[in-house]
Amino acid sequence: MNTVLSPDELEKQLRAIGAARYHNHHPFHKLLHSGDLNIDQVRAWALNRYCYQAMIPIKDATLMARMHDAELRRVWRQRIIDHDGEREGDGGIERWLVLTDGLGFSRPYVQSMQAALPATRFAVEAYVHFVGEKPLLEAIASSLTEMFAPGIISERVSGMLAHYDFISEKTLAYFGKRLTQAPRDADFALAYVKEHARTAREQAAVLDALRFKCDVLWAQLDALYHAYVGPGPVAPGAWQPGQEIAATA
To answer: Would you identify the CATH topology of the domain 13-229?
Structure first.
């Protein structure tokens, strides 16, 4: 890309990436939302997704450590508060553990992350490394998958409540909060990227950062589909359907 895009054209191309590459298109999510997974497959999704949820504030702390602008840090730290909470028993990670509680896992087992698929852990670690190593503009741009979150969340909540008798509004409470948090965060990051990506090279890097983040989310679902839908097998050490659910770490 050799031509400098206008801010609106840059946004248009960012949204086109999400329309084509966001993980709402993945076959695993289509099965999840339509009620075509069994309880063990839903358990595997929640258990593995915890790794991603738990690393989000670490990712954001890594990013904040590179910010020299105090105002930027003040805005960005809200993301950490959203996930860690202001106190024990609060925040997005706690709400995700309510989901895994409801699916029968013990908290120490989930929090150890040792039963997650290797590909899950590798994908999440790659994201943390990305925001720690890439230029700040690209690190911020990688968060722009949040632009597409409200659609998939609405789909997920309505579909899972309609199709799974082991799912309730209480166990899906994490997603209710994200319906307001994600658009707020996405609006800020998008405005930042549109203002600071001024050269063709910077704009190309921003687009690539969003593609990378879409790949991180897609890779996690690839691993889940392969292991728990087919053809398998589940990686050694990862949770196996039929194992005791309330295992200890």
So the answer is: Heme Oxygenase; Chain A (1.20.910)
